[in-house]
Amino acid sequence: MKNNLRLLIMAFLLTVTVMAAGCDSSAPVNQPAAGTQEKTPVQPETNTAASRTMQLVIYHATKDAMLLVPEVHKVPVNSQPARTAIELLQAGTKDPALVSVMPAGTKMKNLTVKDHVAYVDFDDKLIKKNVGGSASETLLVGAIVNTLTEFPDIHKVQILVEGKKINTITGHMDTSEPLSRSEKIIKKP
Fold first, then answer.
1. How many domains does the chain have?
2. Is there a domain that residue 19 lies in?
3. How high is the mean pLDDT of the chain?
4. In this structure, is residue 58 part of a structural domain?
5. Cα separation of 120 and 109, whole Å?
6. Is residue 166 part of a domain?
7. What does the pLDDT read at residue 46?
8. Contact partners, residue 131, CB within 8 Å, separation at least 6
9. How far is it, in rounded angstroms, from Cα 119 to Cα 98?
C-alpha cells in the first residue's frame, strides 16, 4: 500500500512538472519541429540593378541641318551615364526625321569630368571624316555639348582629339576652350 501511495505521489509530481514546463512564457512560439526547416517566403525582385533604367537625352540634327532635336533613350542604369550618352550619340538616331551629326566611324577615347567640365576625347576621325561646312560643325559641337550638359554636374565641355585641345573641327567654330550649352540651336516644340 505504501508503494502504491509513493507511486501515485511521484506520478502526480511528474505531471505537475510537465505541465509547468509547458506554460513557460519564454518558450518560442511556432518553432518548427526538430528535423524540419522553416521555409522563408520568396520575395519578388522589384528593384534589381538589371531592372532599373535611366533616361538620357541625346541631340541629333533636323534633316534641314538647321536645329538640334532632343531624343530620349531609356537605358539600364550604369556607373558611367555620360559615357553612355556619347556612345548613343555616336550610334546615331533611329528617327527617320532626324540626322546623326557624328562623323562615321568616330570613336570616343576617353571621358572625364573635373570641376564641372567634361573632357571628351575623340579619335582623329572627328576631324578627318567630317564632311560638313559651318552648319555641320555648329550642330556637331552643339550635339556633343548639349548632350553632356544634360547632366547637372556638367556645365561646360572641352572637346579633345587624340588627347589634345583643338582650335576648331573644320575651321568655323572655336573649340579651344570649354564650351557652354547652346539653347538657341534646339528646336522648340
1. 1
2. no
3. 82
4. yes
5. 8
6. yes
7. 44
8. 103
9. 26
